[in-house]
From TrEMBL, chain B:
A Pfam cross-reference name: Ald_Xan_dh_C
Residue stretches of biased makeup (Polar residues): 844-855
Region of interest (Disordered), ranges: 97-119, 823-855
Residues in Aldehyde oxidase/xanthine dehydrogenase a/b hammerhead domain copies: 23-179
Enzyme category, top tier: oxidoreductase
EC number: 1.2.5.3
GO molecular function: carbon-monoxide oxygenase activity; iron ion binding
Protein name: Aerobic carbon monoxide dehydrogenase (Quinone), large chain
Cofactor field: Mo-molybdopterin cytosine dinucleotide
Keywords of this entry: Molybdenum, Oxidoreductase
Entry-linked SMART domains: Ald_Xan_dh_C (SM01008)
Length: 282, 855
């Protein structure tokens, strides 16, 4: 429970962080809350030689109304999103999902940017952001680029971020009346999801217009339940159970001491049904 | 000092300990920093079973800050050959004190299991349950063979803990892996890998007990029910991990050892014996201790090594366990396979009970490892009286962390099996679970009463607690709601689970222990001394580690002496202050140690009364003592206060002829019997049949621990105890893989529930005084942990009974519950009753969906 020795650098600005990353290459890790990184360092499963702390970058802690979408600074803490009135009004899914991350201590240190950059398929926010079709703004020595959430997560704990890039902003479309839900299934309130399901459902003349479903912990990355989304498109609300019975199609959940592959698939189906049903009530 | 007309026992006196604890000002072992202190860190085996072929520490010795590195071989000369020679080193249960004091082997093993060549295996064992007990040689640092993952093999001493930890990575150990055994039932099969090959078997011992004619009971039974239950292995998880600071005292040539322990007195004796340090040269201090749950009722390798290093290097040595080590190297609890069978007549009246256990010892015997399951032997009959009982326990070695006492220690296992089988009996006879229990209760009793296990219960009124909990829970209303949910096919089904339990507390009457063939020294010591100011010091041999003895003992002393709790200081946990003591475990502190405080304070009052009579020039028989004031009967104006008397006793210039100065009295209380708290619990669960998730909606408990000292503390013990019971039933399990690696080695994988997972508790009390002590008190430290697991599982099984499900093993995880439902639905209708209990089939439509059905 004692990490290997490391150096600690405080980033004074995003550009400074990029410069520090450039100096240290992939020996460095960004500290953006640290509730995933520090435990694995203490277990000596990770041993970066430099930590670049983004904790003083107060100008990355914001939620802004940008007209058609909301912009969330990467260093916005879960507890701030949980209570943010702009998020509450235009994108309740993010505020609610943030309220389910870890425990109060984690939510007071952990950030949305840290959670996304870590790229853990068992984290809650990535699948919600997938279901929202969010965009991520990324800055590096080569300049700034915007990546769609659907293109960001590449593999287990692996994203498109290069070693000298910093995620700076998350852009989420306003829900504009679309229904939403996040169903997190876990043993204890503080745990990672055994399976989680985010749903965003648009209504059209009493039918389902379109539905987007993000799956937590159903593979090496957060996933969309594409088959179920297709089945739901234009469907009558009475057929949700049938349409979501394909929610696990195309997934590759792991088997571990919490759940078998088969049980996770079952949970994905049940939770997708419940999430879509709840979204239709909102 | 305040003359206190009021009484404090039974009142909600705020805990004196809490301000420091909740503001982070407690003196934990890790807060102790001494000049010149060095830090030890242990290297631990990654293998569960392996020969050590070589260890190279040369590179580690060259690391910055490293002062010394030792292997097991390096320290072999430090240990005494017969470490168990001091009779005080036993915890009170040793059956073979005589043999041990003769200094020869009690195992019959002279050829050196595991390759050691001493006459007697060196071990931490103190409870020798059987003459044939096989004792593995257990040195503090392994040197030729490791037998569980986490066993220490080397120690680095450095200028700080970080440097010591870093140097560990430079030690090179060559291991030759051996076959591993982890599963209890597999361990007992022919050809299984052996945890200790020298024994030729994994069986540590077989221990049995029988009363009445068990064969007759079963031959004339109308019904019999059987259960096969698993007790998961649990990890105690005290919030403060273990830690020790050993400080040499060059002036007297001895040592002060600060250690996070429940048992400083026992540790003193064991360390003295193990290392040949004369007892009078050792001072043991338990500073503020952050919980133990039984895991600190032990003496560990790291404590021995810290003292060895302090002796060898002549400087203070500190070792602090980290959480990962705590999971591997501190004892685990439970770990049993239980077979129970009950014979009854057609009315549900029990005729006999058979119990067969396999109990997981782990790799070695710690102080009480072998004896823990046997504490349950006397508890399986529970609150039910019947004529015939047989019990057999086989202790089994595995290549896993040793087991030992964990809150309840043998009794939660017993309560679980008997309360599960009572539900099976209810189902078999068609009786309500409450009714089948009631039919087998003892009539209320207030005199010691014989039990099927050959002991005597002190007092009991089981009907009262059951009646009250049924009212409290609105049992009829719950059954009505359950019926509605079943009829409507609600995916969330309601479960109602009972537990009517008793337990053995107040360890332990020395004479009764002896009659049970189990050693002695179950007494406890208290000393009550009035200072010249009239304030009070209470010295206790018990060692609180969260229980609030300082508050409770203050209340007890205050009431007897007529002062307030704030006038009383309670001193504990230091063998220089309290040389005699038998420490804290087994819900013994109040019914043994607290009673000793009460009796010592009474002795003070008796002496003070003589002095008061002398001061008032009255006959002693005419002196009354009330509210801190001695007065002459019929002349209340003629009085002196306890303060006056304490001052006079101290000044000693006007005492009765021949009386010794000062008011200071000791009492050594050896109770005539154990105590037997009891209670009735109802757990209400909501089981999501689509996901398998179990939510505890309500928890009702009516407990009887005799008269209570402090209701806030009793409520806290019950809340925490029930939480730990719920944890066992639904969440916690130490899981090992086939290679003997602990896969639940952190708080991420080993699921300790927190406040969000736990219900609000609705608790009430009844008061049935114990006949085992003058105060009538029984103890409450383990009650919740013992009562809760069967209430929870009975509730889950009750919710699932329409599926024909008759059992779900602990922990009843969502996955396991879901799988049970899948398995039940996969069977043809009408065959769902095909299980050992013979429970009648529920009338379930096989085409019904998983959302429950009509029964």
């Amino acid at each position: 429970m004692i990490p290997l020795a490391f150096d600690y650098e405080v980033a004074e600005s995003v550009d400074h962080a990029i410069e520090l990353l450039g100096q240290h290459g992939d020996e460095a890790k960004l500290l953006a809350g640290g509730h995933s990184l520090l435990p694995i360092m203490k277990l000596r499963l990770a041993a970066p030689t430099v930590l670049v702390d983004l904790g003083r970058l107060g100008d990355l802690n914001y939620v802004r109304d940008e007209g058609d979408h909301l912009a969330i600074g990467a260093m916005t803490r879960h507890c701030d999103m949980e209570r943010d009135s702009t998020l509450g009004e235009h994108c309740g899914l993010i505020a609610y999902t943030a309220s389910l991350v870890g425990d109060p201590q984690v939510r007071h240190r952990g950030t949305i940017g840290g959670s996304i950059s870590h790229g853990d398929a068992a984290s809650d926010l990535p699948s919600a952001l997938l279901a929202l079709d969010a965009n991520f703004v990324v800055k590096g020595s080569g300049g700034e680029r915007t990546v769609a959430a659907g293109d960001f997560f590449e593999d287990y704990l692996q994203t498109t971020l290069t070693p000298d890039e910093v995620l700076t902003e998350i852009q989420v479309p306003k829900l504009n009346g679309a229904g939403w839900s996040y169903k997190k299934f876990n043993r204890r309130a503080q745990d990672w999801a055994v399976v989680g399901v985010a749903a965003v459902v648009e209504r059209s003349n009493g039918s389902i217009g379109s539905a987007r479903i993000g799956l937590t912990n159903m593979g090496s990355t957060p996933l969309r339940a594409t088959a179920a989304e297709n089945a739901l498109s234009g469907a009558d609300p009475s057929s949700v159970a049938e349409a979501t019975s394909s929610a696990d199609e195309g997934t590759s959940p792991s088997s571990d001491i919490a759940a078998s592959d088969e049980y996770r698939r079952h949970l994905a189906r049940v939770l997708s049904r419940r999430a879509v049903e709840e979204a239709l009530t909102r | 000092m305040t003359q206190a007309p009021e009484k404090f026992v039974g009142g909600g006196v705020p805990r004196k300990e809490d301000p420091a604890l909740v503001t982070g000002r407690a003196n934990w072992t890790d807060n102790i920093k001494l000049p010149g202190m060095l830090h030890a860190v242990f290297m631990r085996s990654p293998y569960a079973h392996a020969k050590i072929t070589s260890i190279d520490v040369s590179a580690a010795k060259e690391q910055p800050g490293v002062v010394a590195v030792f292997t097991g071989e390096d320290l072999l000369d430090e240990y005494e050959k017969h470490p168990r020679e001091n009779p005080a080193a036993v915890t009170g249960y040793d059956v073979s004190l005589h043999d041990r004091t003769q200094g020869h082997s009690v195992t019959g093993e002279t050829d050196g299991a595991d390759g050691q060549d001493s006459d007697e295996p060196r071990s931490f064992v103190s409870w020798i349950v059987h003459d044939e007990l096989k004792i593995p040689h257990h040195d503090p640092l392994a040197h030729d063979e490791v037998n569980f993952a986490g066993e220490p093999v080397a120690v680095v001493v450095a200028s700080d803990r970080y440097k010591a930890q870093d140097a560990i990575e430079f030690i090179e150990v060559d291991y030759e892996p051996m076959d591993v055994v982890t599963d209890l039932e597999e361990a007992m099969t022919e050809g299984s890998p052996l945890a200790h090959e020298g024994f030729g078997t994994n069986e540590a011992y077989t221990w049995d007990l029988a009363t009445g004619d068990i064969d007759e009971a079963f031959s004339k039974a109308d019904v019999t029910v059987k259960g096969h239950y698993l007790q998961p292995r649990l990890i105690p998880n005290a919030i403060e991990t273990r830690g020790v600071v050993a400080n040499p005292d060059p002036v007297n040539g001895g040592f002060t050892v600060y250690t996070s322990t429940q048992v400083p007195h026992i540790t003193k004796a064991v360390l003295s014996s193990y290392l040949g340090v004369p007892e009078q040269k050792l001072r043991l201090v338990a500073p503020d201790v952050g919980g133990g749950f039984g895991s600190k009722l032990n003496v560990y390798a790291e404590e021995v090594i810290a003292l060895v290093l302090a002796r060898r290097m002549g400087v203070p040595i500190k070792w602090i366990e980290d959480r990962s080590e705590n999971y591997l190297a501190t004892i685990h609890g439970r770990g049993q396979v239980q077979d129970i069978e009950v014979a009854a007549d057609s009315e549900g009246k029990i005729l006999g009970m058979k119990v067969n256990l396999l109990a997981d010892m782990g790799a070695y015997l710690h102080l009480n490892t072998a004896g823990i399951p046997l504490l349950g032997a006397f508890m399986y009959p529970g609150v039910y009286t019947f004529p015939a009982y047989s019990f057999e326990c086989i202790g089994v070695y595995t290549n896993k962390t040793p087991t030992d006492a964990y809150r309840g220690a043998g009794r939660p296992e017993a309560a679980y099996a008997v309360e599960r089988i009572m539900d099976a009996l209810a189902a078999e006879t068609g009786l309500d679970p409450a009714e089948v229990r009631r039919r087998n209760f003892y009539e209320p009793f207030d005199e010691p009463t014989d039990t099927p296990a050959g002991i005597q219960y002190d007092s009991g009124n089981y009907q009262l607690t059951l009646d009250r909990v049924l009212e409290l829970a609105d049992y009829e209303g719950l059954r009505e709601e359950q019926r509605r949910r079943r009829e409507s096919g609600d995916p969330v089904q309601l479960g109602i689970g009972f537990s009517t339990y008793t337990e053995i507390c107040g360890l332990a009457p020395s004479q009764v222990l002896s009659a049970l063939g189990a050693g002695g020294a179950g007494w406890e010591m208290a000393k009550v001394q009035m200072l010249a100011s009239g304030n009070v010091e209470v010295i206790t041999g018990t060692t609180p580690h969260g229980q609030g003895h300082v508050t409770s003992w203050s209340q007890i002393a205050a009431d007897v002496l007529g002062v307030t709790p704030d006038d009383v200081e309670v001193l504990h946990g230091d063998t220089a202050i309290a040389p005699y003591g038998r420490d804290t475990y087994g819900s013994r502190s109040l019914p043994v140690g607290g009673v000793a405080v009460h009796l010592a304070a009474q002795k003070v009052v008796e002496k003070a009364k003589k002095i008061a009579a002398h001061m008032l020039e009255a006959a002693e028989d005419d002196i009354e003592f009330e509210g801190g004031t001695f007065s002459v009967t019929g002349s209340p104006d003629q009085n002196v206060t306890m303060t006056d008397v304490a001052g006079a006793a101290y000044m000693a210039n006007n005492l009765p002829e021949g009386m010794q100065p000062v008011l200071s009295e000791e009492y050594f209380f050896d109770p005539p019997n154990f105590t037997f708290p009891f209670g009735a619990h109802i757990c209400v669960t909501e089981v999501d049949t689509e996901t398998g998730f179990v939510k505890i909606r309500d928890y009702f408990g009516v407990d009887d621990c005799g008269p209570i000292i402090n209701p806030t503390i009793v409520d806290g013990q019950l809340h925490g105890g029930i939480a730990q019971g719920v944890a066992q039933a639904l969440y916690e399990e130490a899981v090992y893989d086939e290679e003997g690696n602990l896969t639940t080695g952190s708080m991420v994988d080993y699921l300790i529930p927190g406040a969000p997972e736990l219900p609000n508790y609705t608790l009430e009390r009844t008061v049935t005084p114990s006949t085992s002590n003058e105060m009538g008190v029984k103890g409450v430290g383990e009650a919740g942990t013992i009562g809760a697991p069967p209430a929870v599982i009975n509730s889950v099984v009750d919710a699932l009974s329409p599926y024909g499900i008759t059992h779900v093993d602990m922990p009843a995880s969502p996955w396991k519950v879901w799988q049970a439902i899948q398995d039940a639905q996969g069977q043809e209708a009408g065959t769902r009753d095909a299980d050992r209990s013979g429970r009648p089939a529920q009338a379930v439509d096989s085409t019904d969906t998983e959302g429950g059905s009509t029964s």
